[in-house]
Amino acid sequence: MHNISLNNLEVVIFDVDGTLYNQSHLRKKMLFSLMKHFIFRPWQVNELLILYHFRKEREKNKGFKGANLNEQQYIWCQQKTNQPINRIKEVVNKWIFTYPNQFLKACAYPGIHLFFKSLAEKNIRIAIYSDYDSIKKMQSMDLKADLYVSSTNANINAFKPNPDGLEFIFTELGIIDKNKCLFIGDRIELDGDCAKAAGMPFLLVNQENVNNSLFEDLSKQVLNVIEQ
Description:
Elements: E1 11-14, H1 23-38, H2 46-60, H3 69-81, H4 85-98, H5 101-107, H6 112-121, E2 125-130, H7 135-140, E3 147-150, H8 164-173, E4 181-185, H9 188-198, E5 202-204, H10 207-211, H11 214-225
Parallel strand pairs: 1-2, 1-4, 2-3, 4-5
Helix pairs in contact: 2-3, 2-4, 6-11
């Protein structure tokens, strides 16, 4: 059994990428798709440069807080690529926010649907907090939450590990005792530090514990602990 208590749990907050699904499996599928696409369209290869710098600049600016972050992320990419903002948005929307969604359900971690179902059965609310918009991703995986929050939302405007997104969730869901919440993520330096800054418990997801039935075990804990 995994070393975390689910006693008196009121809310579970999930990161998405690498937490709900196997990101390495998705990357392999996307690599194949990108190679297949661009090998026949070499004149479009600058799209790969846009994707590279979009991701790299976001990563460089972790913890960034500033007005209109949703627009700022594209400006950072523009400064590196000299491409028009509208072109950057078009490429990012296609290859990051839309195309990968078709693969997500197949890449979902074992037991994640059962865990969501167990939480819902026990009226434990589910929130999503990702640095990326996640509603379409969740729909693609047939997973539902009570609240969806992205770092680029106009009322957040802060990347992890800045805790503003978690604080917003606490307020929206009327959480008083943060120890009755659990943040589940796959990156200590982002999700873990974010939870620490917000003063709440954190559970790390990695390939090893997922393969050792992490989400199945958590489901059993929820169903058993709450019934005691």
